[in-house]
Amino acid sequence: PLILVSCPLALDEKSPLWRKLKTMARVVVRPLSTREPLAAHARLKEAFGVITMVDDPIDAKFLAAAPALKVVSNHAVGVNNVDLAAARARGITVCNTPDVLTNATA
Fold first, then answer.
1. pLDDT tens digits, one per residue of 8-35
2. Of 2, 95, 105, 92, which is closest to residue 45 (Cα–Cα)?
3. How many CB atoms lie within 10 A of CB 25?
């Protein structure tokens, strides 16, 4: 399966978690320099999962452009950018990272 990552994350590519993900799926990371929205990414239509940021709108139009999508993992505390009803209607699992800011706010 293909995992599309919205932008480079804080994970070091040598970390065990990152290496594990790469053994489980083909991982495509959108570079920071890109100006196109994630919804316009050429590989979106084949993505099984996306790792998104809070500024990526995941709405019904985005989901329609991703027919293979099964999982949206939001690298943020909330999921305000995700149309939960549209995801639910498609049977897409939506998750977030509730502790992503714990160290930053401590």
1. 876 677 888 888 988 999 999 998 888 8
2. 2
3. 14
